């Protein structure tokens, strides 16, 4: 099973990823987690350029392709081998993040990003993407010192949230919106319901 978690910055994605991984392990599954951009040596170097190197000017297309380069390496080095050996993979962000952050959030055509993503991932897409959803002002309140992307501000975050909602509407089977308000345990329970529904549908196949 290949799952990914996504959403605007500050929704609690990393905490929920850990909780979901433990829950799946309790079920007896072997779980591999990864984050984007990063997880491989190349990916971490690209992450540094994208998020911490404020001095390098970067246009929208270059930004999108750098995320794709990190993702291509991640698929080849980590995700595909893990799935082939029967493990469950949970990705902290995946292609949908590029469609939303570089497409809906900036000026690139979302469909063109899906197309580039097909090449970058060798058409490997998650069985299910869970998008944690919170109003941008609530999510921003949870953030610490901003990185280059987070520093883009409120209007950008608003476009991102709308982008995630629009993509989920277009692919309701593959992208589920999960309400990220309330306690950690409440959000974890909502996520678990979606994962159980996916497991049930796979067993029924
Ligand atoms: P994030 O998961 O928020 O990392 P952390 O929690 O460690 O800060 O991801 C880093 C940033 O990169 C985040 O602001 C979203 C952005 N991003 C994109 O703009 N496009 C992408 O394709 C991906 C994967 C991330």
CATH homologous superfamily (4th level) name: P-loop containing nucleotide triphosphate hydrolases
CATH topology type: Rossmann fold
Average residue pLDDT: 95
Q: If helices are DSSP runs of H or I spanning 4 or more residues, what is the number of helices?
A: 8
SSE topology:
Blueprint: E1 2-6, H1 13-26, E2 31-35, H2 41-52, H3 60-84, E3 88-92, H4 95-104, H5 110-121, E4 128-133, H6 136-140, H7 154-170, E5 175-179, H8 184-203
Parallel strand pairs: 1-3, 1-4, 2-3, 4-5
Bound molecules: thymidine-5'-diphosphate.
In short:
With 205 residues, the protein is an alpha/beta fold. Helices cover 56% and strands 13% of the residues.
Question: What can you see in these coordinates?
Answer:
The protein has 205 residues and is α/β, with parallel strands linked by helices. It has a single domain (2-203), classed as P-loop containing nucleotide triphosphate hydrolases (Rossmann fold), CATH 3.40.50.300. Helices cover 56% and strands 13% of the residues. It has eight helices and five strands. It has helices at residues 13-26, 41-52, 60-84, 95-104, 110-121, 136-140, 154-170, 184-203, and strands at 2-6, 31-35, 88-92, 128-133, 175-179. The protein has a five-stranded parallel beta sheet, sandwiched between helices. The longest helix has 25 residues, at 60-84. The radius of gyration is 16 Å and the shape is globular. The model has no long low-confidence stretch (mean pLDDT 95). Thymidine-5'-diphosphate (TYD) binds next to α4.
């Amino acid at each position: 099973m290949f799952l990914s978690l996504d959403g605007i910055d500050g929704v609690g994605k990393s905490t929920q990823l850990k909780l979901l991984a433990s829950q799946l392990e309790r079920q007896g599954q072997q779980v591999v987690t990864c984050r984007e951009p990063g997880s491989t040596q190349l990916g971490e170097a690209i992450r540094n350029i994208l998020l911490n190197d404020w001095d390098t000017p970067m246009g929208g297309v270059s930004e999108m392709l750098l995320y794709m380069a990190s993702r291509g390496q991640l698929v080849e080095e980590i995700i595909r081998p893990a799935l082939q050996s029967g493990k469950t993979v949970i990705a902290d962000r995946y292609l949908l993040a590029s469609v939303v952050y570089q497409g809906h959030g900036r000026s690139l055509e979302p469909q063109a990003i899906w197309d580039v993503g097909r090449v970058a991932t060798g058409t490997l897409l998650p069985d299910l993407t869970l998008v944690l959803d919170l109003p941008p002002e609530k999510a921003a309140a949870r953030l610490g010192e901003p990185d280059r992307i987070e520093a883009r501000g409120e209007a950008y975050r608003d476009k991102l949230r709308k982008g995630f909602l629009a993509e989920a509407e277009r692919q309701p089977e593959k992208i589920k919106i999960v309400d990220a308000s309330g306690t950690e345990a409440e959000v974890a329970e909502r996520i678990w319901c979606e994962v159980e529904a996916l497991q049930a549908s796979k067993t029924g196949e």
